[in-house]
Structure prediction request, 204 residues.
Amino acid sequence: MAMRQSSRESRLARGAATFKVIIIITASMMLVLPFITTFNEFLTAVVARMHLDTVLVSWAGPTEARLIGAILRIFNIDVAAAGSSLHLNSAEHSLVLYISWNCIGWQSFIMLAITLLIGLRGPYTASSKVQCLLIGLLGTFLVNLFRMAAVGLVGFYHGEQSAILFHDYGGTMLTILWLVGFWLLAYCWVLETHDEARETAGVG
Prediction:
């Protein structure tokens, strides 16, 4: 048990560089977020005008919209999906939420990829690295769904401006919190060094 605890502490210490990268990403994004938001809107318009978003609009957008709609129904909201749009209605509120290709969360996957390049360095087994990668991808996808559902809830109850503010700042912080939680999970429970694997095999 003591050896396991020591190994876990060693992995966390080795992962210090990963958490430093997350801190740097967070600080950088907070500084340039207004520029990123403006650039994203410009990029969305350019891509749509060039019809480069066809696949995302015809498949990814509608698929994600239906999944987000399923989450919103948990909160007793009447949701109707039409392509990449969600129509939210109740006796007191209504909202149309459009899932553009730029809202599906590709930025968070880039952030995940950057941390993976740093975090998976080390004497870890290939199988534990694959497990870490799969958990990271699935978790990031689910976080993006809940992030967009949260944007919909904020917009539904508090208006468009509040939803935009949450989308730009709250959504970013949710992604950062997920990355911190993901790497704590990875270093404590998922990643396994070759020495630990041999030890486990020897005990078995």
